[in-house]
Structures are given as C-alpha cells and as structure tokens.
Amino acid sequence: MNNRANMVKVAVVGGEGIGPEVTAQSHRILNWFVAKRGEPMTLREAQYGLIPYLATGKVLPEDTAEAMDEADAILWGATGGPETKEVPAAARKAGSLLGLRSRYDLYANLRPVVANAALAGSAPLKPEVLNGVDFVIIRELTSGIYFGEPRGIETLPDGQRRGFNTEQYTTNQIRRVARAAFELARTRRNKVCSVDKANVLETSVVWREEVIALHREEFSDVELTHLYVDNAAMQIVRAPRQFDVMVTGNIFGDILSDCAAMASGSLGMLPSASLGPIDRFGRRKALYEPVHGSAPDIAGKGIANPLGSILSVAMLLRLTLNRSEDADLLEKAVATVLAAGARTADIAEPGAKKLTTTEMGDAVLNALDEVVGKEKEHA
Ligand code: IPM
Ligand code: MG
Questions:
Q1: Residue 177 near residue 247, CB atoms below 8 Å
Q2: Which of 152, 170, 260, 341 is most buried, most CB within 10 Å of its CB?
Q3: By C-alpha distance, which of 104, 49, 48, 18 is closest to 283?
Q4: Per-chain residues with Cβ under 5 A from ion ligand 2
Q5: Cβ 228 vs Cβ 197: under 8 Å
Q6: Is 290 in the pocket of ligand 1 (CB under 6 A)?
C-alpha cells in the first residue's frame, strides 16, 4: 500500500478555450488509472484564466498557484483566445503560461510526433509520406527570444513605432537541453538532429558549437546531424520519417512543432511534456499539455479532440510515474478507438460520424475497460 507521502501529486488545470473540455476527458482517464491500476497519485483540480480573474482579480489565483507549486506533475489544458482581452495585460502576464514555464524552469519540452495509420485518410500529407513517422521534437522552453531582454515597443523620434526582442542562448541553457535530446535518443533510434540558423544568427553559432562539443565529450555514440531551420521545416513535410530526436531553441521549436503536427495527422492529436531539472531527491517537476492550444473558434461547442490531452496523460504515466506499461496501455487504447473508426471533427474523413469530446473520452475509457477485462479473463 502506498502511504500519502509517496503519492505523486497532480494538479489538473483546464484553463481557457477548449482547455477545460479536453482536460475533463483526460481527468476521467487519470481517475480510471487511479481506480483500476492503483496509480499512486492524488489529483487536485484548479482554475485558471478569465473565470478566476473575475472572481479574484488574478488569472492564476492563490489556490491554483499552490496546487501547481506542490504538484509533481501539472496536467494543463490551454490558455488564450478572445477572453484574454477581458483581462488587463499586466494581470495576464503575471500568471501567463510562459511565466509558469519559467517559474518551474521547465526547459525541456518534448513533443512526440507519431503518425497513426488509421488517420491516413484525413491527414493533409500523403500516406506514403506519413507511413512510419515517429520522432520527438525537444524544444528549449525557458530562454531564447521569448524571454530575452531587452524587449519592448518604443516610439522613434520620427513617430514610427519600433518593436524589439532579443534572441539569446548561453552555454548551460544549450547544453542541458541538448543533453536531454542525446539521452532520449539513446532510448530510441540513437539519432539527434539539431536545428538552428547558424548561417545568420550568433545565438545559433553558439548553439551549434555547444551541441557539437557536448556530443564529442559525452555522446559520441549518438548520430548527430544539423539542419538550418528553414530546411528543417521543409524536411518535416517532405520526409518526416528521417527524424528520431530533433532538438532546437524556443521559437524554432514552437513553429516546427505545429508544422510537425501535420506529420501526425492533426494538431489535435499531439501531446507534450515540459520537464524541469532533476532535484537532489531525483524528482523532476513536469507540465503535460496538448500542443493544440485554446482553439477559440470551437471552444464551448463540445467538439474538440481530447486525444492530445489524453496522450499527454500517457506521457505523465511514463515520465512522472515511471509506469511505462500503463502508458503503453493508454496509447494502445487510443490506437484501438482510432482503428475502430472513432473520430472527432478535426480527424474525420468526409462522411465519417463525428464524435463529441465526451464521446471520444467514453470510447477511450471503454477500450481501457476492455483490455483490463481481457486481462482478468486470462488470469
Ligand atoms: C505552444 C503555444 C505557446 C507558445 C503560446 C500559447 C504562448 O503556441 O505551446 O506552442 O508559443 O509556446
Ligand atoms: Mg505553439
């Protein structure tokens, strides 16, 4: 029996846009794993965004901050959309997603891209391009141009406005995320492709040199290649099968991971994990979220695809709880429902029946129950 002290704490924060809808389904999945597989975790739900802002004046109220601070893992929904306009910029910035990534030092953002054969008919790329695609983008998440100073908007003497930001990377920032990439590659097909723009940017010159140095010093058994970011974007749609682990900076990773979503069939399918440093007790704070964001155009309609969020739970089971068997089980359940034809609107072939968000959640839970039922029969 697990005592409470050994329990993994999970904060469940749906947030804004379609976030609460999809997170409601992954929350049901988490509950299932606690009830049926004895997962040693406690769940604490908390609110983020406009609703708590109207009640407390903060998008990230004390209770939510506390739930996330104490959590080993945060299951995050989404942030953004038209409702953000109802919150003054300063209040929004104080509790922003970027602020959270920085607060918990979640520097390694893993975005796996796996093509599902069942979605070949609705995917924008040809089946022969998608066949066998299985790679992970590791995006540096706490530095680069999204955080660099100075930044701002100023008015020039001639009355024009000038917006400016600073791209920057230090040795340590580059090496720790590159290390995460090399270590992950060793558990996969042992290949890392580092993406930069070293033909133009000094930050990228440093990036490339540090990646090469770390590789030579500690990871020479891993195959290392380099691509310029413009070429990488093209290669992801031309021949995505060539990649195993791709590592890159914050802005390039933001752009390339949306692009790579098309190599998995739909943005709605993509999970992610953002990992912090490992502390002296071996613990590692993590935030799990679907890549799709708040999708304001379909928010509140109950038609969003919850699979990106549900597959983020699989990453949580694997990376925070070290239960790879259960992660495999959940991924298999998702594959099963897709193979059986379950589709939300974003992944539906013409003429296919479109499930609601909740119905897709039901389908995955049924598939999980079936697997467990079969295990019992065989026991
Ligand atoms: C993502 C999103 C975020 C980002 C936004 C919502 C700030 O696009 O996680 O990719 O740019 O990092
Ligand atoms: Mg993005």
A1: yes
A2: 260
A3: 104
A4: 254
A5: yes
A6: no
